[in-house]
Amino acid sequence: MSSEQNTPERLAESLTKASVIPLEAVPAQMLKVSLSGSMMQITLRQRSTGLYADIWLGQTAVLSGVLCQNLTWLVRDQAAGLPGDFTFVDTKGLQNPDSTGLGSRFMLMYYERWPS
Question: Which residues contact 16 (CB under 8 A, 6 or more apart)?
Answer without folding.
Answer: none
